[in-house]
Design a protein that fits this description.
Blueprint: E1 7-10, H1 16-27, E2 31-36, H2 43-46, E3 52-56, H3 62-74, E4 80-83, E5 88-90, H4 98-126, E6 129-134, H5 147-167, E7 172-179, E8 191-193, H6 223-234, E9 242-245, H7 247-272
Parallel strand pairs: 1-2, 1-4, 2-3, 4-6, 5-8, 6-7, 7-9
Helix pairs in contact: 1-6, 3-4, 4-5
């Protein structure tokens, strides 16, 4: 391993950005604990690499979370936690199935939260560490059919913003990563959809339903390049609060931020009328 190697714990390494990040970390000689619900899926990643260990981890299982973090702590502690595990779900808000919504939040919000709470005692004791939460541009604006997915990502960003302010004085860093569209399996097997469609949403939600999504294999983002950028950035001394990944992310979020600014300006006078009258 490199003299500057950190110990990384990365969730959701069986595919997508997590898989690409794990490969890059291993290649760079970092000490990596890669995880998946079925660790057999990680064999090709770790075989022949003494700096990589595959762990079973379902982030919705309290037992798995505790066991995985305990194993890494026994090996010296978690220097970098990357909360990457998650998936998408397409449905109009009215169509959302309660059980599937609950599972989505369990995986995309409460799972990462459990990981954060599990690594923080060690990071606090060492007064060092980095927590990376992979969210999405869907945390900045919600498209028709992606309300529930966006809600999970909005939630993670709110938690991350508060967490950063809480732990920064303790020497712990927090980074939010907002990818645009990357050429992964997100739009394929990682994307779920409602079983029942309401006809009235055919024009708004219809084009974005799982069965109608044709973006797989055409996304502009390269996971390998994203992984290299993340490893280099996290290895440095300065982190942004939020990092957009992809030129599409910069364009989409930039347009949304500008639109929000214009709306704030347009309605400032109305907003201000709710104050108590100024003392004469």
């Amino acid at each position: 391993m490199s003299d500057k190697a950190r110990t990384w714990l990365v969730t959701g390494c069986s595919s997508g950005l997590g898989h690409a990040l794990a490969k890059e970390l291993i290649a760079q000689g970092q000490r990596v604990f890669v995880t998946a619900r079925d660790p057999a899926q990680l064999a090709e990643l770790v075989d022949g690499h003494d700096n990589a260990t595959a762990l079973k981890l379902d982030v919705t299982s309290a037992e798995d979370v505790a066991a995985a973090v305990a194993q890494v702590e026994q090996a010296g502690g978690v220097d970098v936690l990357v909360n990457n595990a998650g998936y998408g779900y397409r449905a109009a808000v009215e169509e959302g199935e309660d059980a599937r919504i609950a599972q989505l939040f369990a995986t995309n919000v409460f799972g990462p939260l459990a990981m954060i709470k599990a690594v923080l005692p060690g990071m606090r004791s060492r007064r060092s560490g980095t927590i990376v939460n992979i969210t999405s541009i869907a945390a900045r604006l919600a498209m028709p059919g992606s309300g529930f997915y966006s809600a999970t990502k909005f939630a993670m960003e709110g938690l991350s913003d508060a967490l950063r302010r809480e732990v920064e004085p303790l020497g712990i860093r927090v980074l939010i990563v907002e990818p645009g569209a990357f050429r992964t399996e997100f739009a394929g097997r990682s994307l779920q959809g409602t079983a029942t469609a309401i006809d009235d949403y055919a024009k708004t939600v219809g084009p974005r339903r799982k069965e109608n999504d044709k973006t797989g294999g055409t996304q502009p983002g390269d996971p390998a390049r994203a992984a290299r950028v993340l490893v280099e950035l996290i290895g440095g001394n300065k982190l942004p609060v939020r990092l957009l990944l992809g030129s599409d992310a910069v364009k989409i979020v930039g347009d949304e931020v500008n639109a929000q600014r214009r709306e704030i300006d347009e309605w400032t006078a109305v907003s201000a009328t709710t104050d108590f009258p100024a003392a004469s």
